[in-house]
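Q: I have 302 residues here and want to know how they pack in 3D. Can you give me a structure?
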Amino acid sequence: MRLAIFLLVVPLACQSAEVPASEWAADASSPSGVPTPEVGAVPAPGLRADQAFLARYDFENRLRRFDLPGRLDEISGLAFTPDGRLFAHDDERGRVHQIDPVSGEVGMRFDLGTDLVRDDFEGIAVAGERFFLVSSTGRLYEFREGADRENVPFRVTDTGVGRSCEVEGLEYDPEDDALLIACKVTLPDRGEIVVHRLPLAPDVEALSPIRIPKSSLNAWGLEAEFDASAVAVTPAGSWLLLSGRHDAMIEIDRSGVVVAAVELSKGRHPQSEGIAIGPDGTLYISDEKNGKEARLTAYGPR
């Protein structure tokens, strides 16, 4: 089964094209041999301290935090461009905002389509010059960066993952040249965290999903009810999965084995929805407005 995704440049009057996708490839087997670690963001046995990305951060001491303006009360995903600019989106409209990661200032923004597209957007990713948004039902929107207040053409593809997955996170993985689509909820519920992998190259077969048994989180002092809200790729190639509902973040290797975990403060992160890693290694978490103002928090390596 092959699935290719291309940017369709069309007149703004004809603002979208929808392409159904075929079924995904057969699922991969669940990984085994999950290590039994100490509680907290520590590396798994057999890893050096510098090999677990999360172990490098002190989540009790942030670098900086910014309260965001009302137009980003519903901030969801975060993504950096290759040249180090940070973009975010809200979860109800196809509107993309640029945020200065140092000052927290919200700058330019652009919209999808002549009539602002509305959907339940749950993640953003950037692959070179290609931008992507994904909806909770697995609808994938592709477009290019626009100028300030520009309405940009886009293409929308039904990835097919929505039939068994409530999507809640998107990221670009350069090693596989693929998009990572994290599931908040899977149907049927097999007690697993599932991350789908969608190759961008037209001649590459679909990759099998990565599955993490939720029961493996108990060894890290976390509840087994981990609902992913965001995914990010680390500079080392491992993946981070954030759960805003359960105030936790895990790091997995590329086979799906958990190698580190950390609990987050509910006071600092009332509703964490997005995660991104800057070129300098700074880790950013976005929180929707939930009793407190929407915010962007930055953590630096120790």
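Q: Anything worth noting?
A: The chain has one domain: 39-299. The two ends are 44 Å apart (CA to CA).
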